[in-house]
Amino acid sequence: MGHFTRRAVRTFTAGVLFLVAFGGNITSAEKRAKVVPDSPTANDAHRANAIEMERSSPESGSDGVARQDGRNFTTVMTMNPDDWDEDRISIFFMWEEDDRLHMLYVGGRSANGVGYASSSDGLEWSRSRSPVLDPPEGPQGVSYPVVMPQVKLCLAYGDGGRPRTRGLYAWRSSAPGHYSLADELEPMRMVDQGPRQTSLYPGDVRLIDDKWVLISHGAVNGTSHIFRSESADGIRWGKAIEILAPAPGFDAGNVSEPSVYRDAKSGNWYMWYIANPSRTVPGTIIGRAMSRDGRKWSERRLFLRPEDVDAEAHYISKAFQIDTPSGSFLYFTVTDRDGGCRLVRYNVSDPHLASPSSSSENY
Question: Alpha helices of the chain — where are they, by DSSP H?
């Protein structure tokens, strides 16, 4: 695979991550990425110099090198030993800009940090040697990033350690991987702080019919549900409307970490989300729901379990689907039984998005 073609910037919902069909026509920002032959650009060199980046070589066998795990699963990134993100790679968001694929991901030792990575082909990644989002005041850090490149904004959940410092923060961006906290903004809450609802955690964001649509998850009476909010400017958000709740079956416990994908041929929307059958069991399953209008979701199915990847996989989190001329790929993170974390991609080129799980279920 080579560089992604130059077009208007587009956000993905791997993401993860991590966007929903909300009726109306899709804007040019939602068109799928294309791949053309590799050719180094000045932008590549500038970006690598502007941020201290690290890229591993095939000889080293360390992170950033694509490795086939079997059954069409490929590990494209792992934890970086002795660096700031040595403990994990988790919640991430992907988008395409300036002929490259970009990603923000959560890492860190004790507190959450958000790192930046980029790739020309989706297989080999260069990533920052330190977090790129300055956290709000407090020890808990930043997580659940989403990016709106058209308005040069990044949103993420920030936790300053006190109730009034927890919420959605905004960072202004001068270029991919370069962010400064918008200090003039108060933590944003998109729902009334009542007994049933708590803060929302961003999963995906899309520009649709000149409106920004944010897909998030949050707790309702102790159970995670998925919500949709709208904004004209990416700063002031309307009320969060519930669009997916737990249901009897594989996702009876929680539904979280959403992203969405639109099938160009059928026009249908597919939501990827993390599910579990019980409130007491960590999210380990990738579920998928379908919608014709992005508002009413049905045909839920269990798509992927950890054991479908390999014997080492223990937990699965956040998934984004991306189209390329060489196929359609689902990216997701895996936590192994030994505590290691990795970013994996799976070829979902089948037009019906056939599940690799032998225990696939429909509801």
Answer: 42-50, 306-309
As a whole number of angstroms, the distance between CA 267 and CA 288 comes to 16
CA distance 34 to 37: 10
Place of tokens 């699963």: 73
According to DSSP, the residues that pair with 328 across neighbouring strands are: 323
* Dihedral Cα 211, 90, 56, 328, nearest 10 deg: -50
State whether residue 226 is helix, strand or coil.
Answer: strand
Cα gap 200→203, rounded to integer Å: 9
Distances (CA, A) of 108 to 53, 80, 105, 111, 301: 16, 10, 10, 6, 33
Listed in sequence order, the DSSP H helices in 139-186 are none
Per-residue pLDDT of the chain (363 residues; tens, 9 = 90+): 434 443 334 333 333 333 333 333 333 333 322 222 333 333 443 343 346 666 643 333 444 445 655 568 999 998 877 788 877 788 899 998 888 899 999 987 656 789 999 998 888 899 888 889 877 666 568 889 999 999 999 999 887 666 666 778 889 999 999 998 875 555 555 444 444 456 789 999 988 888 999 999 988 888 899 999 888 988 888 888 899 999 999 999 999 999 999 888 888 889 999 998 887 665 589 999 999 888 889 999 999 999 899 999 999 999 999 876 667 899 999 999 998 899 999 988 755 445 666 554 544
Mark 274-300 as b/e (b = at least 16 C-beta within 10 Å).
Answer: bbbbeeeeebbbbbbbbbeebeebeeb
User: Tokens at residue 208, please?
Assistant: 């649709």
Count of C-beta atoms within a 10 Å radius of residue 100? 22
CA distances for 301 relative to 247, 266, 270, 272, 291, angstroms: 11, 18, 11, 10, 13
CA distance 9 to 12: 10
Q: With beta carbons less than 8 A apart as the criterion, state whether 91 and 258 touch.
A: no
CB atoms inside a 10 Å sphere around CB 104: 29
